[in-house]
TrEMBL record:
<protein>
    <recommendedName>
        <fullName>Transcription factor IIIC 90kDa subunit N-terminal domain-containing protein</fullName>
    </recommendedName>
</protein>
<dbReference type="InterPro" id="IPR044230">
    <property type="entry name" value="GTF3C4"/>
</dbReference>
<dbReference type="InterPro" id="IPR024764">
    <property type="entry name" value="TFIIIC_Znf"/>
</dbReference>
<dbReference type="GO" id="GO:0004402">
    <property type="term" value="F:histone acetyltransferase activity"/>
</dbReference>
<dbReference type="Pfam" id="PF12660">
    <property type="entry name" value="zf-TFIIIC"/>
</dbReference>
<feature type="region of interest" description="Disordered">
    <location>
        <begin position="725"/>
        <end position="748"/>
    </location>
</feature>
<dbReference type="InterPro" id="IPR024761">
    <property type="entry name" value="TFIIIC_delta_N"/>
</dbReference>
<dbReference type="GO" id="GO:0000127">
    <property type="term" value="C:transcription factor TFIIIC complex"/>
</dbReference>
<dbReference type="GO" id="GO:0006384">
    <property type="term" value="P:transcription initiation at RNA polymerase III promoter"/>
</dbReference>
<feature type="domain" description="Transcription factor IIIC putative zinc-finger">
    <location>
        <begin position="656"/>
        <end position="772"/>
    </location>
</feature>
<feature type="domain" description="Transcription factor IIIC 90kDa subunit N-terminal">
    <location>
        <begin position="46"/>
        <end position="482"/>
    </location>
</feature>
<dbReference type="Pfam" id="PF12657">
    <property type="entry name" value="TFIIIC_delta"/>
</dbReference>
Amino acid sequence: MVWDKFNRSNGGVTIDFYPNTLDNIFWSKEGIVAVGGSDHVPRLKAIASDERRWDKINLKTNFFTIEEIQLQLPLTWKNFSVGEEMSEAYIHALDWSPPGLGKHKRSVLAVLTSNHILSIWECVGKPEIATDWVRSCVINHALQAHYKDMDKRDPEESEHDHFERLRAKQRIRAFTWSPSPPDPSLSGALGDCTARSPYLAVSNDRGEVLIIRLQTPYDVLEPETSHWTLSVAETFSVDVSETKQSPLSACMPVTFKWRSPFVDQLAWSPWALDSSNTLTSILAFTLQSSLQCTSVKLNELGTHTDVVTTSSALLLGEISDTQATGCMKWASKLNGTKEAFLVYPTRKSFYCLQAQPGLSLDIQISAQEINTPWDEIAGLCFVQDDNDNTSVQIAYHLGSGTDRITSLALPFTANSAVGSSTWQHDLLRGQRRFSDEYNLAGNVMARAYGLCTSPFGDMVAVNVSFHPSDGVEYTTSSDEVSYLITSQCNDDLQFALAGSPSNPYELTAEALLSSLQSLSVREPEALADENFVVEQVMQALDLAELPSSYSKLGQITEDTPVDIIVRQVRQNILFNRDSVQSRLSQLLKYVKGDIPKTPPLDATIVLKIVTEIARLPHFVADASFLSHSIMQIHCLILAKLQARGGNSDAEASTSEEEEIESCEICRKNIPFESLRWAKCVNNHQYPRCILSFLAIQTPGTAKSCSICNAQYINEFVMPAFKVPERREPTNMDTGAEEDDPMQGTSDQEPHVSLARILFAACDRCVCCGGKFTG
């Protein structure tokens, strides 16, 4: 994986392997580009190039433990799988999830390997450290548990045949993430800052599609969940018409003919609200050259959500040629009329499916004939300008280095051909440099493997490799090199922000910082006026009309659901106009290179934080000792700020400070002297948490902002937030179990407490908006 932490200029980065699959690069919302390829062989001598601005790590995704994949005997020829039994588990497909599933609300990476295993990778520490990336769970285990309970053996079926059939059903062929479902109760509201966990759709080796619900262990409000929990929310079988069976292209039909059809591609459209305020989307899939679509609906049943799918719609009459030549994808955003676009490439044409998500699918199809019978489509990406005009950019596996049309306006018309794209010109320049380096006289061929856009859609990345075109190329595994080329789509500030997510909760400061930095390099005068830039960003994110002060969503009582309290605290601390403008101003300092060693705290933001916490009801503060300490220190800071503003009552209230914190080394009092650091009377000094303002006294219990390095208490390593282990003590004399008097002590943080509410609401840095690491 590679990412440009502080993107100073456009250019390329070398990848030390050849990709072994197409559509192999994806750009996360946090600005990390994942590139899937073959095995990495280290070089004896590193290539000297200007790549220090890039952080790059290599992950070995084809190593599995016995707990992840159990050793089993091969199946009989009827259910035998070459990929499962004999492959080296190279990457077949990968994709980032929407933000929120990983630790500190980051994205997680789903990786499908050639042995039909789909696993989830996440960063549990710092993204630039390879050992901090771990495999969290294996999705195949959810399929195994589902079929074990739901697929019972027929009386006429032998146990061995039933066992083999269940194993075959656990093989995963394709997958896709759903966009994060918005909250219908707040959709369209100013500062809508809620998001729910996305779903994962997978297809197995027996023509079934399953929708997986994932529950992570990083939800502060759900202390009972200590590990990843997977469950099947919905499943349906798919059929293929007998008239659309794909022609056999193998030299040994008896050997290579599939025993049963399976879904080889999945694509999930954005969510939309129908007339009944129900979330619906469209799930498209291909099955043996048959393109089908089905509607997915979320039914809210109190605290539970049901996933419902309708019958699949075959698109045989509208699309004459459905033999796919590459990936199919939905545009990431709906257009002005709440319609979604799906681009589907075939051997003869590109098809654009235009539909409004709903229970009844009314699909409009347009086509663009581009004859590419011998070339695969390496990748698709969508670019949207400030006028909501969407175009698709296409990367050909072999023809991207030619004069082929790589950009088409949607929906397809006679004038859809926009022409070439910026990344194509950069690719041609790379070909010329490769030719000059090896004296090839222009005889260079480029192979493209994937194409993706940045989180804001203002930059495009393409993964390519260069080869001689007039002779045999001799190389070894250690000499394999491909390139990741990033290109700017447009130098206009409004265009650069046009692709911003419709939900500001999905915006990450890392992505915004990267976009503004790359724009400042090409057009320095575009960011000269700081106030103008801040206003432009606010308008692009639909945050220009946010209230400056806090808003009350209702009176908080002991019966108020905790998620409602968290939503209110989050909006009032992070998503008010003053807070957003302050974070944007801080980011612009990093864009201009004016980076202070210790960024100062904005007094206005501190006042908003302590005011919001101080006005919360006492029952959340009295829930635990930790919550009570947080409330005390916030009230103390509020009184000091009011005293500085000339409030005489505040001066009287701060004349006698009670002891809030004590030093863990000498047990002496820690008076409050600074928002940044704490020092006891014996001069033991500690940093302070920027959010709770408590002293971080225990080593290894801090998390930091990935941009400004501000220090916070890491709630995931605090004993009060950990799930208590349910041990059953045994009497050593009698062997009988006895009650543990220490079980369930008051050290455990209650489900509804100020500490949980505060850390759940502020899941990003209050200074600059960066995601946390550690």
